[in-house]
From TrEMBL:
<keyword id="KW-0032">Aminotransferase</keyword>
<comment type="pathway">
    <text>Amino-acid biosynthesis; L-arginine biosynthesis; N(2)-acetyl-L-ornithine from L-glutamate: step 4/4.</text>
</comment>
<keyword id="KW-0055">Arginine biosynthesis</keyword>
<dbReference type="InterPro" id="IPR049704">
    <property type="entry name" value="Aminotrans_3_PPA_site"/>
</dbReference>
<keyword id="KW-0028">Amino-acid biosynthesis</keyword>
<feature type="modified residue" description="N6-(pyridoxal phosphate)lysine">
    <location>
        <position position="252"/>
    </location>
</feature>
<dbReference type="GO" id="GO:0042802">
    <property type="term" value="F:identical protein binding"/>
</dbReference>
<protein>
    <recommendedName>
        <fullName>Acetylornithine aminotransferase</fullName>
        <ecNumber>2.6.1.11</ecNumber>
    </recommendedName>
</protein>
<keyword id="KW-0808">Transferase</keyword>
<dbReference type="Pfam" id="PF00202">
    <property type="entry name" value="Aminotran_3"/>
</dbReference>
<feature type="binding site">
    <location>
        <position position="141"/>
    </location>
    <ligand>
        <name>N(2)-acetyl-L-ornithine</name>
    </ligand>
</feature>
<dbReference type="InterPro" id="IPR015424">
    <property type="entry name" value="PyrdxlP-dep_Trfase"/>
</dbReference>
<dbReference type="InterPro" id="IPR050103">
    <property type="entry name" value="Class-III_PLP-dep_AT"/>
</dbReference>
<feature type="binding site">
    <location>
        <begin position="105"/>
        <end position="106"/>
    </location>
    <ligand>
        <name>pyridoxal 5'-phosphate</name>
    </ligand>
</feature>
<keyword id="KW-0963">Cytoplasm</keyword>
<dbReference type="InterPro" id="IPR015422">
    <property type="entry name" value="PyrdxlP-dep_Trfase_small"/>
</dbReference>
<dbReference type="GO" id="GO:0006526">
    <property type="term" value="P:L-arginine biosynthetic process"/>
</dbReference>
Length: 401
């Protein structure tokens, strides 16, 4: 099918939930993708922080091919080796003792909310149902995850949402303490507010939050869906802040492009998920788990990719700051950790994103629409960055003329 036909049929048959750009992508390799007309793009969005190893990484492709030929799906009533391998890698490289597999970040957050509630009910013998979340946060679009998302624009038309959710300013541990009641169950936070605009908290923030949660015997849930799997130069972003959560959620980069989500928890908490309390038909699917095993093995191998992410991030941010000096009337701020980078403009950024796409660079928006999000594959090289910066420079110049 030609691009025009694909776009027309998509607009006709799919529910109109996305404002798609008029580009039909056909193939990808590394940090590059090509559309059906053969045009090449540098992909600095990477499926919104999903393709941590780039497009079609050899080890992941081979793992998926082998697994598809061996076993595609069975029920969680039985054991499978890929699921066990993946759980072992995650547990050995995190704070957690147990893991539950699902299919997406939203599912992982839904499960985390359930786990927190049932654990607190079992522990205290009474229903502690309130959650404290951050303003400007994003945790998903199903009812539970949407209820703890601190952006009203996502709530409209879906009220009433889950009761008992309180929102406090991000980066304010004292506000969390003031919001706690005898009904508080857990605090749910992103280590870095990604969808909200790439906001990084103060260095001591999470230490204070951890202390508050311990003081009042409430749980700390960290949503690492976008920050996990090496995105910030650590396997998990909580490592930057020298604390451990009680529950953590993962998705996006975990499968290297194959859909998978996970809930990780400490032993005592995980035991609250007894048989019949939670389940997922496709969770821990052998193919998805095989892809995730290959992804994690590559990310963790000799620690090289994590170190590389931190080094290449400095180079990328240095180049972006040079553009900020060149366009001080346009670029307000540059922020982020690792390869989770936000460039906030003093205007709506959509026209810049479109202009970059025309010139062969894929980037995204975050926050209120003034923030450009760069989440390239962790394997991006200096030459790729130089080319991306050159395109970004030209786009800024043309839009602001």
């Amino acid at each position: 099918m030609e691009a025009r036909e694909i776009i027309e049929f998509t607009e006709k048959f799919l529910m109109p939930t996305y404002a798609r750009f008029p580009v039909v992508l056909r193939k990808g390799k590394g940090v590059r993708v090509w559309d059906v007309n053969g045009k090449e793009y540098i992909d600095c969005l990477a499926g919104i922080a999903v393709n941590v190893l780039g497009h079609c990484p050899r080890k992941v492709v081979i793992a998926v091919q082998k697994q598809v030929q061996r076993l595609i799906h069975v029920s969680n009533l039985y054991y499978t080796e890929p699921q066990t391998k993946l759980a072992k890698i995650l547990i050995e490289n995190s704070f957690a003792d147990r893991v539950f597999f699902c299919n997406s970040g939203t599912e992982a957050n839904e499960g985390a909310l359930k786990l927190a509630r049932i654990y607190m009910k079992n522990k205290f013998g009474e229903q502690r149902y309130e959650f404290i979340a951050a303003e400007n946060s994003f945790h998903g679009r199903s009812f539970g995850s949407l209820s703890v998302t601190g952006q009203e624009k996502y709530h409209h038309g879906f009220e009433p949402l889950l009761p008992g959710v309180k929102f406090v300013p991000f980066n304010d541990a004292e506000a969390i303490e003031r919001a706690i009641t005898e009904k508080t169950c857990a605090v749910i936070l992103e280590p870095i507010q990604a969808e909200g605009g790439i906001y990084v908290p103060d260095e001591e923030y999470f230490k204070k939050v951890r202390q508050v949660c311990d003081k009042y015997q409430i749980l700390l849930i960290l949503d690492e869906i976008q920050t996990g799997i090496g995105r910030t130069g650590k396997l998990f972003a909580y490592e930057h802040f020298e604390i451990q959560p009680d529950i953590m959620t993962l998705a996006k980069g975990l499968g290297g492009g194959i859909p998978i989500g996970a809930i990780l928890a400490k032993e005592e908490i995980a035991q609250a998920f007894a048989p019949k309390t939670h389940a997922s038909t496709f969770g821990g699917n052998p193919v998805a788990c095989a892809a995730a095993v290959a992804t994690l093995e590559t990310v963790l191998e000799d620690g090289y990719l994590l170190d590389y992410c931190q080094r290449i991030s400095k180079y990328f941010i240095k180049k972006l700051k040079a553009l900020q000096e060149k366009y001080p009337e346009t670029i307000k701020e540059i922020r982020g950790i690792g390869l989770l980078i936000g460039v906030q403009l003093k205007q709506n950024a959509l026209s810049v994103v479109k202009k970059c796409m025309e010139k062969g660079l894929l980037i995204g928006l975050a926050g209120d629409g003034s923030v450009i999000r760069f989440t390239p594959p962790l394997i991006i090289e200096k030459d790729d960055i130089d080319e991306a910066i050159c395109i970004f420079d030209k786009a800024l110049r043309e839009v602001t003329q």
